Amino acid sequence: MSTSSPRRRRGRRLLGAALALVLASALTPAVASTANAASAVAAVPSAPAAAAAPAIAAAAAVSGPAAIVGTQSNRCLDVIGNVQTVGAGMNIYDCNSQANQAFTYTTAGELTLYNGTRCLDVVGQSTVSPAGVQIYGCNGGTNQKWKINANGTITGVQSGLCLDVKGAATANSTLVTLYTCNGGANQKWKTTLGTVDTQAPTVPGSPRVANLTCESVDFAWNASTDNVGVAFYDVYHDGQLMKSVPATSLSTTLTVVGGVTWGLYVNARDAAGNVSQASTTVKISPPNCQTDTTPPTAPSALTARASGTTVTLTWTAATDNLGVRAYDIYRNAVKVGSITGTATVTPATTFVDSALAAATSYQYYVVARDGQANVSPKSNTVMITTGTGCAQSVCGVTQIGTDTDIPWGLATLPDGSILYTRRDAQDIVLLNPTTGAKTTVGTVPNVQGTDGEGGLMGLAIAPDFASTHWLYIMHTSPSDNRIVRIKLENNALVLSSEQVLLSGILRNKFHDGGRLRFGPDGKLYATTGDAQFGDNAQNLQSLNGKVLRLNPDGSVPSDNPFGNYVYSYGHRNPQGIAFDSQGRLWEQEFGNSVMDETNLIVKGGNYGWPACEGTSGACGTAGYIAPKNTYLTSDGSCAGIAIVRDVLYVACERGTRLYREVISGSSLTNVQIFFAGTYGRLRTVEPAPDGGLWLTTSNEGDKDSIANNSNEKLLHVTLGG
Hints:
- It is a single chain.
- This protein has 721 residues and is mainly β.
- It folds into four domains: 6-191, Trefoil (Acidic Fibroblast Growth Factor, subunit A) (Trefoil), CATH 2.80.10.50; 205-284, Immunoglobulins (Immunoglobulin-like, Sandwich), CATH 2.60.40; 300-385, Immunoglobulin-like (Sandwich); 394-719, Neuraminidase, CATH 2.120.10.
- The strands form 15 sheets. It has a seven-stranded antiparallel β-sheet with strand order 1-5-6-7-8-12-11, with no helix packed on it. Strands 17-16-19-20 form a four-stranded antiparallel β-sheet, with no helix packed on it.
- The longest helix has 21 residues, at 6-26.
- The protein starts with 5 loop residues before the first helix and ends with a strand.
């Protein structure tokens, strides 16, 4: 072939490619670990338009042009036929220094050819193995972004699949596709293109605000630095993304809500998707847009109905010149709960007071509040007597302990005592739930907070704890989030036994995930946040924005769906996981600003973030799995879940409530709300040995890394039928 003219060479190669396609369709694929026999995918346009692809200006080059050479074949990645036609496929061919083998790697992660007019592109934006690859007009799509990895693989950013020589063949004109990464030699490439940028920018400095009004504020910061270059700054309040601005901007004007306190901070991001740690937080308290000294009218027509030891209150809504924001419920003149709304959603006029004493009389009244904390007169007072016994779902609450730090992970030992992690204090406490006696069993080494929600988080006890004494712990370190195991013997951590099972999970101020749970299959499941960069959640080579699955020794289970630790993906900041009686995994996830969600996790499932939040955005798009229940973020921000007798219990922070939801088939039904405002922010809920629940609060010091600045409760909830 080396002596053929370019014209004859192109003709032979097109014929060879066509013959390969015919043979691929005629043969039955055989399964092999390193040689995929996926059926060939014909090259078709990537976008809905059938003919020409719209092109955009190419990103700046990192390096190139240069060849990409298959390690196994020593042949070059090559555009079939040496054409620039949109939809032309890719194969391997003798390296010849022609333009169809000369790739440039851009700052946007594109692999371009022909002076940047064509990009290496995934056919149909497919994320399912096998997928075709082709050339297409550069359009900035995620299916045109690639990572050149240190292990020699080249992966699609959108799919996480590896660039793969079909069938592990080495002959000229062998097709190249995308396939599940499997470590095969046919997925290894050599190139002189620039190495992958894995270095994150430095932390933006000196965040500051000016010109604060009831509607806006100017937010500014000092520039970050990066080895290649900062591309964007992402501005957040309290873990919620507000806007992204280009690196040329070191300030922006933000829309705020009068009367609502926020914590502002900024992250820097480079073109490769590396995100800095967050800046320090700047607290703002915008004034209300108009002075309001008029309180709401009193709620009226308050009635009470008792059913066993539960009382249900209803009343007629109060009115206000600007709007009622909340109702506070008083039992025997002590506030026991709140029903809250927003500027656009009025609060409900029903409250359920559960877990009361049997055959006992109680007095209730309700007051209304507006957005500027003006309080109405009291409603009428009602008296009600509970029944002689509990006939409801929730029958009693007992305080079993308090703590000056934030209880985060919690697990029950075989003897019925409790172990729980203290997030900011970085130690583990043993609690006797009967006597309230507490013992600190040790401080976990190498833990560091994030000035936000990182620190000492998830805790799980080995299924064979009685013989192995292993505790499994997830925590933030100075460089990452990680999963370790340490033995507990004689009520003390044996620090010399520590083993790091999994490291390299990206950390940030918020979105660190952190829950651990052993499944009925004996595997360890872990939730990870997106580390404040949504694209991590869709990258199957990233550990972030995922539910992970590990063997107890930290190795990758052989039946995991992608050949790595990833079990499901497309998650923003999941924290709750629990298994039902059928062995199915349920997950609870924080939304950004629209919806939180409860998901039924399936192996290899994509739950849509960042394109999808709850049922909004692209959630109806094929390939994304819809949640089983959603919650307004004002009613949710739910952090923990537990399943008892196939009933799901969801502990919510901002919503200050516990949801009870019956699992019926694959649906959640008969949703009830308990403890709305009674105990404040609820973080962790776990099954108790007696068929009840352990429940913890997270009311103070929740968004910092300061130890012992909290005042939290540990509760036992007695459940009924």
